């Protein structure tokens, strides 16, 4: 039996995927989480066979949760299942340690196939994304390719309007460390203010709406 921890911040979405997964004889959803913090706690408590992880979670992203899970348990199996079909997300998720990545637009059978393959120790990326990764690799990220994983996470949170203090709390870092990451990513991206940062994030689909509250300035 493949025991799954299902992570998505929308209860209705989780319910739909739970029903889909449990139509099979070999997959069982043992727990659900609506936030990154809850997902990490449940993973540590339950040690499921596999985690199905959304990216767009409140506060801590699914990519950051994946990184923490893999840091704690290197053999953990995480399948990122996201609405984002851009290489910027799939490449970051795989770099964080995810064993697979599929888009929510994929057919239901693709999710079942991905769960089974990853649970058996294989990797899985659905075909359209695999082609994009093969053709574009990290070049598709453009300027964002120069950011480290930690800088990318700080960038994403700044774009959401989080302050340096907020980010320090979310990522368990000191405010000085966050400020250093902020300076480094601004230099790498050639941006001078919060407005430019949010516009760049919006072009890459990291934020849905422009927000300038705090944003580290």
Q: Would you give an account of this structure?
A:
- With 217 residues, this protein is an alpha/beta fold.
- The chain has two domains: 2-137, Response regulator (Rossmann fold); 147-203, Orthogonal Bundle (Arc Repressor Mutant, subunit A).
- It has ten helices and six strands; from the N terminus they run E-H-E-H-E-H-E-H-E-H-E-H-H-H-H-H.
- It has a six-stranded parallel β-sheet, with helices on both faces.
- Helix 3 links the parallel strand 3 (50-53) and strand 4 (78-82).
- Helix 2 packs parallel to helix 3 (62-72) and helix 7 (149-159) crosses helix 9 (175-189).
- The model is unreliable at 209-217 (pLDDT under 50).
Strand line-up across the major sheet: 2-1-3-4-5-6
| Major sheet summary line | 6 strands, parallel
* CATH fold annotation of the largest domain: Rossmann fold
Helix content: 40-55%
Oligomer: single chain
Number of helices, where a helix is a run of at least 4 consecutive DSSP H or I residues: 10
**Global Rg:** 17 Å
Structural class given helices, strands, pairing?
alpha/beta
Q: Give helix and strand order, one letter per element, not per position.
A: EHEHEHEHEHEHHHHH
| CATH architectural arrangement of the largest domain | 3-Layer(aba) Sandwich
What's the overall average pLDDT, rounded? 85
Estimate nothing, just give the exact number of structural domains: 2
């Amino acid at each position: 039996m493949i025991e799954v921890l299902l992570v998505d911040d929308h209860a209705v979405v989780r319910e739909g995927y739970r029903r889909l997964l449990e139509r099979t004889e070999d997959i069982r959803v043992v727990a659900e989480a609506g936030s990154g913090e809850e997902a990490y706690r449940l993973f540590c408590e339950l040690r499921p066979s596999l985690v199905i992880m959304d990216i767009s979670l409140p506060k801590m992203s699914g990519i950051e949760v994946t990184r923490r899970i893999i840091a704690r348990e290197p053999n953990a199996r995480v399948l990122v299942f996201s609405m984002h079909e851009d290489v910027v997300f799939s490449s970051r998720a795989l770099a964080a340690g995810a064993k697979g990545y599929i888009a929510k637009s994929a057919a239901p059978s693709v999710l079942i196939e991905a769960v089974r393959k990853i649970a058996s120790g294989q990797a899985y990326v659905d075909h359209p994304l695999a082609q994009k990764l093969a053709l574009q690799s990290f070049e598709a990220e453009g300027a964002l390719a120069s950011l480290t994983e930690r800088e990318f996470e700080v960038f994403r949170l700044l774009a959401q309007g989080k302050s340096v203090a907020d980010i320090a709390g979310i990522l368990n870092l000191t405010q000085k460390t966050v400020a250093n990451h902020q300076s480094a990513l601004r230099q790498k991206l050639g941006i001078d203010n919060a407005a430019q940062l949010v516009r760049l994030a919006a072009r890459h689909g990291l934020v849905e709406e422009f927000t300038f509250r705090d944003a580290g300035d």
